[in-house]
Write a structure and sequence with these properties.
This protein is mainly α and about 220 residues long. The protein is built from six helices and no strands. It holds the Pfam family CbiM.
């Protein structure tokens, strides 16, 4: 799914620092709000640990198309952990991924913004869908599709704004290539939507209490 699979040096130092600074600012806000809130729910911490492990593992399973596409599980992170814990999860997953060569260190900031957009949108859409329908599969599936679509838009915007050093393409040519990649990603998004839906339905049957925070 949406992830900038470029090596270090693809963006100029200015853009690397800018995306990192924005990501650090959002992480700082998430930490502040978490510390200001009431005592963390042990169930949420357990869920966060689970989805962090699952997301990191699935990040490394790539389909060799357009430089590699993969599932993200970011919609699942948003639905189960929420945007605050989700911010920390996304940061950890991207740091660990960069440590084993999945994306450059300089692009961690940009990738955090891409994945965080998916987490936030999935969290919001799932909560909104729950007010319309009690069908958890539909709510999770729609949340996954919409959030992953937004993630692709954010990915494309960051690359187009930053530019890629050493690539001599017009903005139109770059947009064309990115649009094709986004189309492939959205094909994978359908698969992820089904997986997310089945997981949420399963959790809703055996541990409905874990979804209580997503109903409000």
């Amino acid at each position: 799914m949406a992830h900038i699979h470029l090596e270090d040096g693809s963006f100029t130092v200015f853009w690397v620092l800018l995306w990192w600074l924005i990501a650090i600012l959002l992480i700082g806000i998430a930490l502040y709000l978490l510390r200001s809130s009431k005592k963390p729910d042990p169930k949420k911490i357990t869920i966060a640990a689970f989805v962090t492990t699952a997301a990191f593992a699935i990040f490394q399973v790539q389909v060799p198309v357009f430089g590699g596409v993969h599932l993200n599980l970011t919609p699942l992170i948003g639905i189960l952990a929420g945007p605050l814990l989700g911010t920390l999860i996304i940061f950890i997953v991207n740091i660990l991924s960069a440590a084993i060569g999945h994306g450059g260190w300089g692009l961690v900031g940009a990738n955090v913004l891409v994945n965080l957009s998916e987490v936030i949108v999935a969290w919001y859409v799932f909560r909104s869908m729950n007010k319309i329908t009690s069908n958890k599969f539909s709510s999770a599936g729609v949340a996954a599709i919409i959030s992953l679509f937004v993630g692709n838009l954010v990915m494309m915007a960051i690359i187009l704004i930053s530019g890629i050093q050493g690539v001599h393409q017009t903005p139109g040519e770059l947009l064309s290539g990115l649009s094709l990649l986004a189309a492939v990603n959205m094909g994978v998004a359908v698969i992820e939507a089904f997986i997310t839906g089945f997981i949420i339905v399963y959790i809703g049957k055996i541990r409905p209490d874990l979804l209580e925070g997503s109903r409000k």
